[in-house]
Amino acid sequence: MEQRLTLITLGVRNLAKMRAFYKNVFGWSPLDSSNEEIVFFQLNGVQLALFGWKDLTEDAAVSARGKGFRGFSLAHNLQSEKEVDDLFDTLKTRGAHVVKPPEKTSWGGYSGYIKDPEGNLWEIAYNPFMNYDADGNVLPS
After folding, report:
1. Quick check: 78 and 72 in contact, CB under 8 A?
2. Is-contact 102 88, C-beta < 8 A?
3. pLDDT of 90-137, one tens digit each?
4. Closest residue by Cα to residue 25 from 130, 95, 80
5. Beta carbons of 75 and 122 less than 8 angstroms apart
6. Rounded distance, CA 67 to CA 82, Å?
7. Fewest C-beta atoms under 10 Å: which of 25, 50, 106, 109?
8. PANTHER family, from UniProt (predicted)?
């Protein structure tokens, strides 16, 4: 199987609230293919989809009873500690809930965490071991 990620779909309990968070707090624009049942955001080479929790569990044929920590986080990497601090300041002024302010990490980077209205964790990080292209996309090691 080819090493590729095309789409990340988050099962959400309140689609309107989550759409507003990603649009107003992160400043992202939904794709035209979005509707009342699903919202798509084009990222750099991958899409993020927001889909009703119940609808997603039915589609995947799994139980809808999951809650609490889901065992994953999403990450947004930047090219400096200053960029991390600046983005945290912006997100806080837009109402983001800070879980952990940015700080030096044990692995040599710099990161902090916010969460969206339904508890999905976003790590905002600078990883000095990653290489980036001119558009800020991570290059293979």
Report:
1. no
2. yes
3. 999 999 999 999 999 988 999 999 999 998 999 999 999 888 788 777
4. 95
5. yes
6. 34
7. 106
8. BLR2520 PROTEIN
- Which amino acid is it at 104? K
pLDDT value for 67: 67
Domains and CATH numbers, the chain: 1-60 (3.10.180.10), 73-132 (3.10.180.10)
Q: Token pair for residue 10?
A: 């988050």
Q: Can you say whether the dihedral through the CA atoms of 87, 38, 73, 70 is positive or negative?
A: positive
The length of the chain, given as a count of residues:
141
Q: pTM of this prediction?
A: 0.82
**In Å, what is the CA distance from 49 to each residue of 6, 107, 118?**
11, 30, 14
pLDDT of 141:
63
114, with CB counted inside 10 A (0-12, 13-18, 19+), is buried
